[in-house]
User: What shape does this take?
Amino acid sequence: MKTNSPNVLFNHQAMLLLENTSQVMKQKLLLILMLVSFCSVSFAQGTRAIQGRAIIVTDVNSILFTDGTTGRIATNAAINTERLRNLITEVQSSTYFFEGAVHTYGDAPTNLFTDLGSLNQLNTSITLKENIEIATVRINSSSELNSTIDLASFSNFPNLKYIYFITKLDTTSENIASHIANYDTRFNILYKIDKGDRNQ
Assistant: This one.
């Protein structure tokens, strides 16, 4: 009867165990790489998930300077690019709300201009809310940029489609998304860094 005597230099059983372990490790490594890749893509889009809903913040220039009249930002509602361009670049009936003072120009305003420090007073201060489609919110300081942006302030604006943040500070879509609270999927969240250079 033949017996297997262990070979000190070459152990077949140990090599077989090592090969199985190597296969398992390869699978785990592949899974980790896929997970890292997925996370990298998510952060590149400026998203953050809250209760299964992704908060998507997009640079407005990536929408306005594309071909076609309709854009789509991930899971948010379809965007009519021409309408958005008109709301941002053309003169519209507008409401301005800064430092507690409301000024409305024109009938049935479609634009609201305010700053981040005034958000918590919007629902009680603005009376003509029915036709507002875009709210342009100025972020003036780094402390505002790093504070919570509570979108519940816009809950009583029935036709609001766009919340557009403008700042002269260097920031990213990820940074803005990380500060948003009470997100509502009916809003398309846009941002622009405006340093005031007009010589472009």
Q: What stands out?
A: DSSP finds six helices and twelve strands in the chain. Confidence is low (pLDDT under 50) at residues 40-52, 68-76. The first strand starts at residue 47 and ends at 50.
